[in-house]
Structure formats: structure tokens, C-alpha cells
Amino acid sequence: MGSVRRHAIITCSAAEVWTLVGAPERLHEWFPTTETRVEGSTRWVTLASGITFEEQIVTLDHDLRRFQYRILNNPIVTEHLGTVDVIEDGPDRCIVVYSTNMEPEVLALPIAGAAGIGLERLAERFGRSM
Amino acid sequence: MGRKILFITTDQQRYDALGCNGGTIARTPTIDALAARGVTFDRAHPQNVVCMPSRSTMLTGQHVATHGVWMNGVPLPADAPSIAADLRRAGYSTALIGKAHFEPLLDPFLRFTENRLGVDRVNTDDPLDPHRGFDHMELATHGAAGQLHYSTWLRDHHAEHAFSYYPVLDGELQVNAAGGGDTGAPQVKVNPIPREWYHTEWVADRTIAWLNALPEDRDWFCWMSFPDPHHPWDPPANELHRVNWRDVDLPDGYIADRDKRERVLDDKLRHWRGWYDGTFVSNYEAPAKWVPATITDDQVREVNAFTHVENELIDEAIARVLGTITDRGWSNDLDVLYTTDHGEFQGDFGLLFKGPYHVDALMRLPLIWSPAPSAGVTPARVQAPVGLVSLAATFADIAGLPRPTYTEAPRLPVSDAEARTLGHERVLTEWDSVLFGKIVRLRTICRDNWVCTAALDGTMNRRGEGELYDLANDPLQRNNLWDDANHQAIRDDLLADLWANLPTTAMPLRTVDAPV
Asked: Which superfamily does A2-126 belong to?
């Protein structure tokens, strides 16, 4: 099982960051994807290469500020759980943690790389910790 | 007009692949002729033994610790120093044709310029400020999968061969362990593609096209980068007649006796035996599902035969390009540099592929500098240790530029006497791999015919462990003298030299964004 984790410290309240991260249909506003569509608990995410992932939204907890999803119906991905946590660290600071467990394990690496870009975009948008 | 520079690289080629270096199977008359009229280096090492870090060293003139591409899958930052950019600013037209691999190939998010260029069917992202200083990038890798230019071209023009190559990855995106050929050797396939559409020919064709489009009075730097003889070993079937694998002798480095082979492996750092037995796969550069202990004599023969065929095709492709350069009237002002990014086991120690193993199979490289006849350099063989880290400063020197301040090594010497003057006393190689909890870290110095490798803390090795080889008396590196009481003084002297000269690793380490 490939297991990866990336994080960013953002100088903005967890509640404000969650307004974006906790909106599954707005993924393309911060993650390096081109298109997002949500119907019920299913999400379709399209990448610049044209690949589309079908995902099941597993957790969308506005109290815990946790989002979890699984990639489904994919000919290559046999197991997957992605988790995004927005953790309060004071009134004007939070930590965003993106983690993924998946098979095939090597696919976790480009997803981690993309998550790194996504977290960087969040930091640019909401405030970067110095 | 100034001197033109043709920089030729292969991928994963051994020192002894070439006739000029003692190779007796592949016929390489074109490269041998470059050596005969130029400077041939007998102890050239890469600064890392896998593609991305080594290629980043070529472009930046920096050790791995400095440029930060510490394993495959770590992209070289787009704003990293580039000797191509310096040459371009000096008025050179610049091109990279063939395999680049400064950025990951497995790129589903299409984050990296190298991959986007092929998808967009363009050769530059910005004509005024091109990626890494190359006016023209036309890229290929091993086979026809993916988004690079060669793959696009093959699918457009010869779609029937889009799947002729060996599939590098399996259905789980692991490096494929499936066997082929007559012996079932991993990553071997009889490839039905005609020679004229094979990637070696395509790289030469595209290089010739780029050269022919240049004005006669233009100075130029062309990095012609062949993907072969890197695995998969799948040369065109209609060329296999060149070397019958049944006629190939087993290489000197192969230890046919299993007990003896395993005793030699047990004498090395522990990750060697772990990989051989299939219990410790530390990196992505070899098939995880292939267990080296299963290798057969005939598989070694077949892999070697296919490799020799690929090397002959490269030599003949180079001859075509040099013919074009002659026709354009540039030969008197042409410098040719020929090398590769790292070596290949090709059966040594019963192993194939590459990884954290700092011995001649992977570290001793072909390196030839054939200076422009107009420069009046006397042909020579250089024994002094040199590294690919010296290439960037060499290109600058050829172009009449001062040594770039970002480079960490002097230019290549043209003789052993000049090597001493320039300070080529030692060459350093680093390895770091951290992949899902499996960690290997090595630091190596080669000096005075000794190779000394210090392990850092990792999954199987601990700081204080290592390998020491006497290249003069043990050229096949079978006798590890690290713990030999009679060699503690030379070991400690080499280690002191290593730590004194290795640049401090830039921290934090860059993230691994792909397996390769």
C-alpha cells in the first residue's frame, strides 16, 4: 500500500479555509485538475491529461473539517482512500493535511505531488506561514 | 563563427560497451574514431547512478547535494541553472533531441513541461525564454508509451507499431518483470518495429532535421540523447541477426557459480543480498517482482546480445548525424562529447538493471571528448578520475565563456597532466532512495584507484558500514576491504577526503513527485 502525506501551515482561520476545501465541487479551484462535477456522493475529477477519476465521497464532516474520498471503478486503482484535514491552530492559523493510501502504491506519488501544488495554492490564496 | 557542440548521450551504457574501451562484440567504429582523434576518459563517473539526478548534474554542473534531484521522481526546478541557457544567451542555437528526463515521466496531472510539449505538439513553451534554455525540445523515452514527441509521432504515422515495444510498466504500474525473447529474461522482447521507425533512428532523424534548418553561420549546441541501451531490451527484430545470443560469452563480471556469487554478495553492504534474494526492493529502477537470484546464464547472454545490437544502432545513427555535419561544412569547428548517464549491471554479480550499487558496472562510464580540429588538441587517454559534473564547465569553455559560477567542478582535462593542474583528484557519487519506508543512503569517493563507499543510516545499513575496493588489484570489485585491518589507513584517508569535498546537502529535501 502506498501511503503519502503532505501538509501546509496557513495563516488563516480553519473555518475560512474550510469554505473552499470543504466544498468538493470546487476542487479545481485549488487542486491541479481541470474540471470537477458532483452528483450526490459521487464526484468526477478530470486531469489535464484527460484522465477522469470517479470518486465516492466518504466523509464530508463540517464539524471535524475532514473530507475523505475513494477512487472507484478504475481499471488501475484497486484500493484508495484520500483524506484532507483542516486543523485549527489558533484563531488565525491552521494546518491542512492531505494524505492518500492507495494501490498501486506508485500512483500515490504523483497524487502527492499534485497535492503539494494544491496546498501551495491554498497557502497563496489564504496566507502563507513565514 | 565559434565552435559547435554536439553532445551525445546514451542511457544506461557500460564503459566496456565500446570498441575503444575494450568491447569486443558491438561494432562501434564511429565512436571509436571520435576516441582515436580525441580525449578518452578511463575513469569517468556519474554523480548518481540513475537518470534524473545524473542528467540534472550534466545540465547544471552541480553535485546532487546541490541541485537537489536526489532520486528519480524528484523534478529539477524549472529555474535551476542550465548550461544550455548560458550558451543560448551567448548566441548559440540550442536543442535537446531525445531523452531529457529532468522531470518525471509518470505525470497524469500533466504538470511538467517535458510532457506538455508532446501533448501540445510544440517544440518550445516560450520562444523568447525557452524551457531550460533549449530553443528546441523534441523528446523521446524508452518505447512509445506516454505523451512525448516520439510517442505522438509513432501513433500518428505508424499506429500499427504503437504497441510493438515491450510494455515498460505492468498493470500495477510497477516496472514490468515479464520475460521474453528465447530465455524469458525480464524486460526482453523481440520488437517487430522496422528499424527506420525505432527511436534511435528517430532521434538521429530529428537531429538532422534541426541541424539542416540552421543558418550556415550559426553556432549551435545540440544534445542528442538516445534512450538506448536502457531496458527494455527490445531492438528491432530485423537487426537481431547482428549478435546471436547463443554465441555471446558470459561477461567477466558474471559469477556463474552460485555459491561463489552469493559469498561475494554477502561481503558487500546488506542491501545487495536483500535485492538479490528478492526481500528488499529499495527503488523503482528494476522490476520489483523479478528476483535476481533466478537469473540464468542464457538470460545474461540474451540481455547482453540485445544490448550490443542497440549499441551498434546508436553508433550507426551517430555516423549519419556526423555525415550531415560534414555536409554542412562544420566539421573543423565541431566538438563532440559522448557519454551516458549511468551504467548497467548486464549480468555482473548475477544482477541486471541498476540501483544503490557503487561499482564499475554502474559508475564507470564511457566519456569521450573529440575537440574541434581547429582547437589543435592532441589525442589522449586520461586516467585521472573525472565526473559528469565537469560537462557544463567544459561546454562553457568550448564556447569561450568563463566557467559559470554555479558549477562545482572544473572543465574536463585534455591530458593527465592537465587533470592535475585543474584539480581532478577525486570523483564523488551519491545515492539516496526513500520509497515507502525503504531507505538507502550511500556516499562514494573514487581516488587513486580506490573506490570507497560509506553507508549512512537506512533500512538495512548503518553509518560506519561500507565498501572499499582496490581497482588496481581487484578490477571486478569482488573483495570488500572495508573491514580489512591492513586497509584502515587508506579507508580513513578516503573517507576524510570524501567528507571534506562533498557539498552540503541542500535542505529540506525536495519532494518525490513520481516513481520515475
From this structure: START domain (3.30.530.20)
